[in-house]
């Protein structure tokens, strides 16, 4: 008998630092935080999910989730046939902008619990949701992680302290590789020069801090920027919007 459900949902609350270890789902997953920030790692890529964004994980994609600040997670599981039939969802993982209408739809579906194909009103609601997901903005909130053990050790060191101002020679000495080797590894394995990778890491870290309620000035300083103006300029240039977009807190429903 065919599965009658189009969409299933789940609402959970997690404390700061909680980690969901690597797992996967047979259905596609839309991860949304009504409050807090999630760091999702899938296929060697780190995806940042601050408030007003969600991340799409296609069926079968192994992933881990780390919580930054208290997180009110609202999850929708979308039947593979529904996603394929509508053609709305990306083939890979992707951060999506959550406009006010889409947010209300997500929260409403979570309140309903499950949407069935044999319930006319629920099938219509699922269709509206998929239409809004198709129209959602795709956002560049990701960072490819290097695979080489030395470059990975450096990347993890900077993830722990993005404001670290050590130059590449000093960082290389700490992980047992020359600056030249690390430059080559980052370019080959992440597609970015080390300086570009480091800047993206800082900006994503800042976006995460903004999502927990820090001011633009505080987030910029903690991410390693010497002035608010330099931070705002880099943020807008790289991510296409001002930092203020990521700061507005949204209360969980």
From TrEMBL:
InterPro entries tied to this protein: AraC-bd (IPR003313), Homeodomain-like_sf (IPR009057), HTH_AraC (IPR018060), HTH_AraC-typ_CS (IPR018062), RmlC-like_jellyroll (IPR014710), RmlC_Cupin_sf (IPR011051), Tscrpt_reg_AraC-type_HTH (IPR020449)
Domain HTH araC/xylS-type: 152-249
Record bears the keyword Cytoplasm: no
GO molecular function: DNA-binding transcription factor activity; sequence-specific DNA binding
Superkingdom, taxonomy of origin: Bacteria
Keywords: Activator, DNA-binding, Repressor, Transcription, Transcription regulation
CDD domains with a match to the protein in the record: cupin_NimR-like_N
Keyword Transcription: yes
Pfam families: AraC_binding, HTH_18
Protein's recorded name: AraC family transcriptional regulator
Taxonomic source organism: Nitrospirillum viridazoti CBAmc
């Amino acid at each position: 008998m065919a599965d009658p459900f189009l969409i299933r949902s789940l609402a959970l609350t997690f404390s700061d630092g909680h980690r969901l270890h690597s797992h996967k789902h047979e259905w596609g997953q839309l991860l949304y935080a009504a409050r807090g920030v999630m760091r999702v790692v899938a296929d060697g890529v780190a995806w940042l999910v601050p408030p007003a964004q969600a991340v799409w994980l296609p069926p079968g994609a192994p992933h881990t989730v780390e919580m930054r600040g208290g997180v009110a997670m609202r999850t929708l599981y979308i039947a593979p046939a529904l996603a394929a039939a509508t053609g709305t969802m990306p083939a890979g993982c992707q951060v999506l902008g959550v406009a006010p209408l889409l947010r209300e739809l997500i929260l409403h579906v979570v309140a309903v619990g499950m949407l069935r194909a044999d319930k006319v009103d629920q099938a219509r609601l699922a269709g509206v949701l998929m239409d809004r997901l198709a129209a959602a903005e795709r956002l560049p909130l990701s960072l490819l992680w290097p695979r080489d053990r030395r470059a990975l050790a450096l990347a993890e060191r900077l993830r722990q302290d993005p404001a670290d101002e050590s130059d590449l020679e000093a960082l290389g000495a700490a992980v047992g590789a020359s600056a030249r080797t690390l430059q080559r590894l980052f370019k080959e394995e992440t597609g970015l020069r080390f300086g570009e990778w480091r800047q993206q890491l800082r900006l994503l870290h800042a976006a995460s801090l903004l999502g927990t309620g820090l001011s633009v000035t505080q987030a910029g300083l903690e991410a390693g920027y010497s002035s608010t103006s330099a931070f705002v300029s880099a943020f807008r240039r790289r991510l296409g919007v001002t930092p203020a977009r990521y700061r507005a807190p949204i209360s969980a429903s």
